[in-house]
Give the backbone structure.
Amino acid sequence: MWTFGGVFKSVEINASEIKDILDGKVMIDGSNIAGCSAIKNADAFLSPDINSFRLMPYFDTENGRVAMFMCSILKPDKKPFEGCVRTILRKKLEKMKMLGYSKMNVGFEPEFFILKNKPISNSDLNFLDEGCYHSNEFEDSGAEIRREIICKLGEMGVHCLTSHHECGPSQYEITFKYSDAITSCDNLMITRFMIKTIAKKYGLYATFMPKINSKIAGNGLHTNISLEKDRNNVFASDFGLSATAKKFVTGILNHAKEICLLTNSSINSFKRLVRGFEAPVNICWSDANRSAMIRIPKATGNATRIEVRNVDSSSNPYLAVFVLLSAGLDGIVKNMPIIKQTDLNVYELNEKELKDLKLDYLPRNLMEAVLCFKNSKFIDNLFCSEVRSLILRKEEKEIENYNRYVNSFDFENYF
């Protein structure tokens, strides 16, 4: 189970109680889980997803083996809790199937840093190495620990594809094979958990924080998406990207500002979305340009996909995928005029050139993202008022806390 901020929560149950688990009789205090339930109606039940069952050999001891289920949250009357992020995504996937699409494939590319210890501040970052993009074994001090992470994830059913050093010092990326949307989100949560767990075993500290230092690249969560119909990738065509895929891309771009609160969910997120670090700033797409918000990888056939590049790991992946799917389908259903791709390096364009090309900006801070979300009729139609209020309360509270906080920037500039 998860909070709205994408924090992994768990409860341990003895194997002898497996019947109660499967019957959905395990109860939790929902008032202690952000976004779950008010104190006046605190009881909640966990409903395990049988298909999510997996062994966790890493945690086995002489006392026994460990396994896990992913769970959805139910209200006291056993009806689905409207704020359960897994349920929110599942309902949208059911609507997608009613439109004739049988499957949404998702593949994540999480980036992260592994440091020698948990720093006190961003001026106290003790890197493992000073490597760069695709550094070799001699320059990449994280290679061995990544191999262990990949092996342990494999034992848990998470199929990793590649692992390499990223642009920043001690920054790495592990990608895993695409799967259906729910399974991919589950795998991402497990991957984050295992990366942090194994790093801790070695006395190290792993972080997915979007921007840990203003002078080095941030951590993204590039999100690869395609749709299937009758086991065929409808994003593929004999001439490259299909019209359906371009409509899907157009829907995401047209709603990019409104959904940004759920793809980039923290104040820190927007410190990553700046020029010069291969993170998108403007709302556009391209088949090659890495400064674009959506890139089309050079792949054909069933591997054809779009790559949404602004997403980061401060988001709840279930909600991020939900709004990306919702926006993309809106582009298809409403037959939106296809937005022309931009093959220029948008980092190098001045304000007049951006205006001439009609290239708008993503929200530049969390407050802008909140306002875009709050004033969106599209968002109003996606969420019930209770869930919409829960999301806004969480984000507005973060802004309020930040505005009260006196940080190093204040001292350096105003003391």
